[in-house]
Amino acid sequence: MNNKEIIQEIYEKIKSIDDEGELASYIPELANVDPENFGVHISTINQNNFGIGNCYDKFSIQSIAKVFSLCMAYRILDKKIWERVE
User: What is the pLDDT of residue 86?
Assistant: First the structure.
């Protein structure tokens, strides 16, 4: 199975799950988002790209930026990062 087939299969499985979550209405930018939006995109180191759903729609990253920051810090500090977290 190639990346495109894997992403399509995952997308379809997740898209079919009933979403019981709610938009973060206390964040104005997120309160205006269409809750039906859902997309997945993969870019490989071989320059292969595949996207499905709303993967090209622009959106506010809000709190997910914290995860990106943690990943960058982990890449720099490796396991030492956990010495700084209590």
Answer: 66
Torsion of CA 55, 15, 61, 75, to 10 degrees: -90
Share of the chain above pLDDT 90, in %: 50
**Rounded to an integer, what is the distance from CA 48 to the centroid of its chain?**
18
Token code pair at residue 17: 């799950």
Residue in this structure with the two tokens 């990106």, named with its chain if needed: 68
Question: Cα 9 from chain centroid?
Answer: 17
| Of 60 and 11, the one with more pLDDT | 11
* 8 A C-beta contact, residue 39 and residue 57: yes
Residues 6+ apart with CB under 8 A from 60: 29, 30, 33
State the distance between the two ends of the chain, measured CA to CA, in whole angstroms: 42
